[in-house]
Amino acid sequence: MAWTRDEMAARAARELQDGFYVNLGIGIPTLVANHIPEGVHVTLQSENGMLGMGPFPYEGEADPDLINAGKQTITKLPTSSFFDSAQSFAMIRGGHIDLTVLGAMEVAQNGDIANWTIPGKMVKGMGGAMDLVAGVKRVIVVMDHANKAGQSKVLKRCALPLTGAACVDMVITDLCVFDLDRPKNGKEGGGLTLLELAPGVTLDEVRAKTEADFQLGTFA
Amino acid sequence: MKNKIYDSAAAALEGVVFDGMTLMSGGFGLSGNPETLIPALKDTGVKNLTVISNNCGADGFGLWMLLNNGQIRKMISSYVGENKLFEQLYLSGELALELNPQGTLAERIRAGGAGIPAFYTKTGVGTVVAEGKPVEDFEGETYVRETWLRADLAIIKAWKADPEGNLMFRMTARNFNPVMATAGKVTIVEVEEIVEAGELDANAIHTPGIYVDRIILSTINEKRIEKLTTRPRETETA
Predict the structure, then answer these.
(1) Contact yes or no for B91 and A122 at CB 8 A
(2) Nearest to residue A137, comparing CAs of A55, A69, A45?
(3) For helices A85-93 and B102-114, what crossing angle results, to 10°?
(4) Which of A182, B26, B118, B161 sits at 20 to 30 Å (Cα–Cα) from B199?
(5) Is pTM beyond 0.90 here?
(6) What count of Cα atoms within 13 Å lies in the side-chain half-sphere of residue A191?
(7) Given an 8 Å threshold on Cβ–Cβ distance, is A93 in contact with B123?
């Protein structure tokens, strides 16, 4: 049985450490907030200008001046702070955010990620995605292993226009978890290592559905 | 002292609007938009605008009004999704678009206000964003050079202003507004409340009045919510 969206989010949540400042993308990454392990306290950043995001408001208590980067109404916490967009991206670009969890259309074994545009279709814009992958210390991608046509989204090289080069550290799909040792500080990376399989998923299935090269971790 | 407070949006726009001008407009999505100044700008009939704004409004709201009225020639934004009209105009070639990563957009505006013509960033290196731009290595990492953005006019939205133009913003309605205030040759702010001098705590001013030229009281505060998301109240147990 492959992992569900919630199970993928829960697996990503296990990467959170106490004291982390975290930015969660739209979609499955948003669900990570529902699975923060007990005893782990993290502060959620929203790139439109907030640290310390609270849960969704109760019905009737939504405030249009209090939204997250996905434009959803949210709440503040006693420890929240607000700031402008330049300050928000200074903390992202400056490496002050510990972890970001993002969706993707493609990830390559060299750490490249593509998640903002498909040529020939309407260009919507990258929003803050390029800043996040370039600036956040650790980048985790959560996505389906294959696209709707059944093709692998874990590739040797990305075909779509990149959001960032050599920036992904971990890939969590519905089938498995890969560590990604990306090129860093002029050193070549070690590429993908398979760390875990979803319950009932076999190594043969992952091999068949992955275009990228990968090594085997010590899980087996 | 020069009076910065104007009676209406139309009065505040007098003498500072011209065809072909560059405009900055604050807001993130539909939050913190200058909702009173945008329709007043539409009424001036100004044309061929280059508009710098994170987004371009939504159906019937915000900058969409200028777009729908054929007043925008070019947008510099980070995200223009969920806007059918934008898509039509862009695909038919009537509208030019320059997409920037959101943080690069914010920093270009900040640089414009701070007198910094260019800066280097890691954002966009190895992507289409860096194409044609100078790159340079610093301490073993590659960075791309981005240039400042400045505007003939910045229209922004704040929560409270005093007569000096000192501003306070409210929660995430702050977003791009404070940086845009610094980067406009002329900056007009609309606020929900104009308070007496001395009422704002000088320690808690978000934007000092030096950046603000004209102040009006907002007469339109629709504050449309794009994605109303709530949770049910925990049911009380006896």
Answers:
(1) yes
(2) A45
(3) 110
(4) B26
(5) yes
(6) 11
(7) yes
Interatomic CA distance for residues A105 and A31, integer angstroms: 18
Contacts of A31 in chain B (CB under 8 A): none
Whether A47 sits among the annotated catalytic residues: the reply is yes
- pLDDT tens digits, chain B, 238 residues: what are they? 679 999 999 999 999 999 999 999 999 999 999 999 999 999 999 999 999 999 999 989 999 999 999 999 999 999 998 889 998 999 899 999 999 999 999 999 999 999 999 999 999 999 999 999 999 999 999 999 999 999 999 999 999 999 999 999 999 999 999 999 999 999 999 999 999 999 999 999 999 999 999 999 999 999 999 999 999 987 655 4
- Catalytic member of A47, A59, A188, A205: A47
Residue A84 in contact with partner chain B when CB distance is under 8 A: yes
**CA nearest A91 in B: which residue?**
B103
User: d(Cα A104, Cα A31) in Å, to the nearest integer?
Assistant: 15
List all residues 6 or more positions away from B76 whose beta carbon is below 8 Å from its beta carbon: B50, B51, B52, B53, B98, B100, B105, B149
The residue length of chain A stands at 220
Question: How many residues in total does chain B contain?
Answer: 238
CB contact under 8 A, A126 and B99: yes
DSSP-derived letter for residue B31 is: B
